[in-house]
Amino acid sequence: MTTPDEHIRRSERRHAFTGIGDQNQLNPLFAREGEATDFPLNALPAGESLPETAYQVVHDEAMLDGNSRLNLATFVGTWMDPHADRLYAETADKNMVDKDEYPQTAAIETRCWKMIATLWNAPDAELAIGTSTIGSSEACMLGGLALKRRWQLARRAAGKSTEKPNLILSSAVQVCWEKFCNYWDVEPRYVPITDEHKCLDGFELENYVDENTIGVVAIMGVTYTGVYEPVAEIAAALDRIQAETGLDIPIHVDGASGGMIAPFLQPDLPWDFRVERVASISTSAHKYGLVYPGLGWVVWRTVSDLPKELVFDVTYLGGHMPSFALNFSRPGAQVLLQYYLFLRLGWDGYYKVQKASQDVAVYLAGEIGRMPAFDLWNDGTDIPVFAWQLTKGHTDKWNLYHLSERLRLKGWLIPAYPMPDNLTDVVVQRIVVRNGLSRNLAESLVLDIQDAVAYLDALESPMPTEGLTHAFAH
Ligand SMILES: *Cc1c(COP(=O)(O)O)cnc(C)c1O
């Protein structure tokens, strides 16, 4: 991982090496007469520059970022078609919160979450309530806040303490849930994943739940590995707990990635509002929703699942529009892009795109699983994401961090990292297949992995382990 400070230091060093300007200056490679060609790195330039010059500087700097097509570490979409690009450029100025000035964008937002509510089998989309967000993190915060407030209201009504709320989650939750618990003073109760229980599956849930439990988070597409947590089994465990103790505990489904995969690829799997205990579901539109970064969705089964005290009124064409959000102003363009994609692709189109990604994931998992060096953790048949370990006893000369580094030489970003608590001695490597990783590219990747493994296996002495770091795993 590179900290921002390190990054700046590196970039300064790079500029020092090129010998251009002084150490704190950027110098574009071209120098037309009359143009400002030196820019201070960390201070606002005193004067103006030509738009071409400023553009070229920013363009060239951005070029140093990785190649997103070869980045198999991230879930976030990086490509949309030219019509979407055009729409984005036309609507980049729209502010989502300004429902008065942009009533049509507001109406389209509502259409989108209603479509999603239907996709997630809400009993009646007209009775559901939802909103767009800046991503899953905000969507999860809102889902969590609704759980907390519902619990508080019920406790107060019963004359009981609201001092010590807790939330049950897998130890493999995404960092946004740690933030939620930290920021809103909720005790996280992590259920550790183990070799036998590779995700939260309801096992021994009764040991974690009590009267202060505001809810259980179930993940559709665990970030570390891509597996679905069995929402229906978790709900069944909570049904048993309710029968024994009377505690009625709701579920929030974090479908950051799976929320836009399961409706298309596993339509018969009951993970959504078909499971009665599921009160709310969130997703990242910028993951398998296929929209550019900056959009998420959260939907509650019915308006009564979202305490009305949390909802603010925003003026809307002289009327009022309910709003539940952490941000005030945020871009509206992504909502229009989501609507564009819903119209453009429809159910069939989404199915085809997701199926193509899954086919590539299953192909890659098959090829990698076949190599003696590796043991698959899963096979890419939930979301198109899978992880593998080094086969025990295969080698004492190299590990998955070395393989990750080796693959970087070819441009591939394929992170290796330890699993969470209780399994931290297990290191896995993960591939996220997104729209755009074609079968052709995948075949090149298999060859590159085979080459890298052959090189590492042929070493006469072990690779050094100094300076190995684990990479971005969210
Ligand atoms: C990516 C992810 C998040 C956070 O999503 P953002 O849209 O990046 O805020 C939350 N939960 C899970 C399971 C994720 O995979």
UniProtKB/TrEMBL annotation:
It is an enzyme of class 4 (lyase). Its cofactor is pyridoxal 5'-phosphate. One of its GO terms (cellular component) is cytosol. Coiled coil: none annotated. The modification N6-(pyridoxal phosphate)lysine is found at K287. Keywords: Decarboxylase, Lyase, Pyridoxal phosphate. It comes from the Bacteria. Residues 1-25 are annotated as: Disordered. GO terms for biological process: L-glutamate catabolic process. Pfam families: Pyridoxal_deC (PF00282). Its EC number is 4.1.1.15. One of its GO terms (molecular function) is aromatic-L-amino-acid decarboxylase activity. It catalyses: L-glutamate + H(+) = 4-aminobutanoate + CO2. Belongs to the group II decarboxylase family. This is Glutamate decarboxylase. It comes from Microbacterium pygmaeum.
